[in-house]
Amino acid sequence: MKPILEIKNISKKFRIQHNGQVYMSMRDSIASLFKRSTSSSEDFYALKDISFNVEQGECIGIIGKNGAGKSTLLKVLSRITPPTTGNIISRGRMASLLEVGTGFHPELTGRENVYLNGSILGMSRKEIQSKFDEIIDFSGTEKFLDTPLKFYSSGMQLRLAFSVAAFLEPEIMVIDEVLAVGDAEFQKKCIGKMEDVNKHGRTILFVSHDLNAVQSLCKKAILLKDGQISMTGESDTVINHYLHSGTFTSNNWIQKTELKHPHFKKIDVKLEGSQPCLKLMVNTTIKCFPEMQPSFIAFDIYSKLGSPLGQAIPNLEPFILPTVGTINIATEIELNGFIPGEYYMDAWIGPHFSETYDWQKECIEISIIDSPQKNRTYPHPPSHGFFVPPSKILYS
Amino acid sequence: MEYEIKPHQKLNLGLKEIWLYREMLFFFTWRDIKVKYKQTALGFTWAIIQPVILMVLFSLAGAALNIPSETLPHPLFTYSALTLWMIFSTGLTNAGNSMLSNANIIRKIYFPRLIIPIASVLTALFDFFMAFIILIGMLIYYHDRITFDLSKMLLLFPISIIITVISTFGIGSLLAALTIKYRDFRYVTPYLVQILMFITPVIYPISIFHFTGAKYILAINPMYSAVELFRSGFNGQVLEFRLVGISLFFALLFFIVGIYYFRKTEAYFADLA
Fold first, then answer.
1. Residue A385: which region, alpha, beta or left (left: phi > 0; alpha: psi -120 to 50)?
2. How many domains would you assign to chain A?
3. What is the pLDDT of residues A111-164, one digit of tens each?
4. Rounded-to-integer distance, Cα B176 and Cα B114, Å
5. What is the C-alpha separation between A351 and A359, in angstroms, rounded?
6. Min distance A112 CA to chain B CA atoms (Å)
7. What's the number of domains chain B is made of?
8. What's A134's domain CATH number?
9. Does the first or last residue of chain B, that is N or C, have fewer Cβ atoms within 10 Å of its Cβ?
10. Candidates B2, B31, B35; nearest CB to A90
11. Minimal CA separation from A101 to chain B, in Å
């Protein structure tokens, strides 16, 4: 069987105007007829030579940093903007969900908006009619069906919007970061609904920053970097690779460019001790300046998927005094009870909690292999958090 | 359903695709009509009140300034032109702004973009049919002062409505495509509509010009033929075929140029909106 989507050598070029507004005024156009434009412009490729196939029933996650081209790819796929070169062959009815509630009108009632939005998303009037009760049920807004949308709370509007989207039944569904909004419970309901959709053999392309959602929903993932595919494969593998492909992940991190303000020049880390008493030894080399204010340092610890876990502040007083040249600071951070896994750490320096001199994000990577509980035989599921607080039974 | 997404190149009308998206066209038109009269106490009656008030004003002015109205009573002379004129003016204003007012949808969903100016014109057409009811009443009221010929009216009314719709749609989609690229047209459109009103025989007959050259220039206005054909259904006058022909030619020309320019630039609307 032929793949349901064939994406061949897609590129998308934008022209960046360096000193102009986004849209032209007629004066500019008329003026440029007569003289050569003085504003410098530059070609920028948001997508470069993207090729991949999607088989029927596959659910593919598209991940990557901001500006990697994820949204542009979705826009090209959903025909909103044409590619500069390359072509895509699609063998199914596609619905794109780049936003929920597209076309919602505040003056129309809930009922009218369901019809309007459904039609905009590509449902036929019959289809909407037959699913209408289910949609309203799912959204839980029965009581307000004939109230204009402008009187809905924002949460209710969102729920109604999601519910219409959840009942789309296209062969291919393209979803952008839409799950980022909405309350946690409703998000869960929607992910559940999407998994159902996928089980019925529908194809899903899903862009998200929420790596957990990608991991749980998609078997395959594509990692985009600077408009190009940097990796394709099993979503676990790709997500892992993505998390490790940060700019500074070695435990010997060196700042190469010279900055004009106090900053970290070199960070060295070593994990010492053994579970449950792990110690992270951090040696930092900091470049100081005479004009700086007395400063202090802090280290933020994150889980592999980016949840903040805690902040270590070795000294609350600004103890780094203005001077010329570099100074070395050795720090010890206790990592008591951390469960096995990958962690990241930021290094921060500043004179006050509200002012930053230098903030190196994810410059330190920590990998813990042993469990903090020596004779524990069962794993540490992430649903129970990231560390095991030391505890003991006093009597029983 | 298999289709290909390619760099923008070939040019066609895309009528087949518009037919595929006919339900969306229906919903856009339905939305525009609904929203227009939401939270108004008088609702659809506004579609009648507006041309009626203008008719009263123009008739008073016509009487005061002694403007001729050919063979017709002055109220009927202005009102008949006003019903058509309202399709043109509201259709043009709405279509011109339509791309910007629907920008949030254009940026997020694919559909043949022509649907939006079509919906604007259909919305204006809805108002016309409301106002037309009054016109029928007036034709009956004045039946002994006009040349009441039903078969002539049944033939000429649809033709002139079609000419109006075609020229509104052509110029409207041209303005829509221009507005999204050059926001200057947001300010140009209202003036354009006002100026066109004065060169369309709504208030005065074109026969007040004795200089033939002026008549020819005024006939470039596509609304000239629509209004003249509409009135000749009941005014018993002979049409100036040459002038109507020129006007028809320009109606078609604007239609073709408008759609051509729209289709040529529509692929980048989402990037510009």
1. left
2. 2
3. 999 999 999 988 899 999 999 999 998 888 888 999 999 999 888 888 888 888
4. 10
5. 12
6. 9
7. 1
8. 3.40.50.300
9. N
10. B2
11. 10
